[in-house]
From TrEMBL:
Keywords: Hydrolase
One GO molecular-function entry: peptidyl-tRNA hydrolase activity
Protein name listed in UniProt: peptidyl-tRNA hydrolase
Gene3D superfamilies linked to this entry: Bit1
Amino acid sequence: MLGITTLFPPVGKMAAPQSLVQYLVLRGDLARAPFSWPLGALVAQGCHAAIAALHAHRDHPNTEAYLQDLGNMRKVVLEAPDEAALMALAETLKQNNIDYMLWLEQPENIATCIALRPYSKGEVNPHLRKFKLLK
């Protein structure tokens, strides 16, 4: 069986100087009534947001370093209890100059997920501390 490092060898010789993580914060209420979105739909929202954040910040040195070693990409998926909490997080990130992407599901224009560009844990933990891992 091929390992992930065999399938995705480092693209270049540049190694990330620190452990970089891409954080996603997904609305947990979308999985419960009255929304009751299926798991696949929620996963898709996180995927859309993650890719959009990487693309939007593709020229940032952290994003470049993160993408140099595809076999070691780390993501942490957190849960916002509802849309109000997600939007409050977006405002906090904006005020603190944290790069992120707010994903809006179309055509309904529903805010579903925030994905940050890759950061070291210490840079963003103070802003994400109140969110628990998505269950």
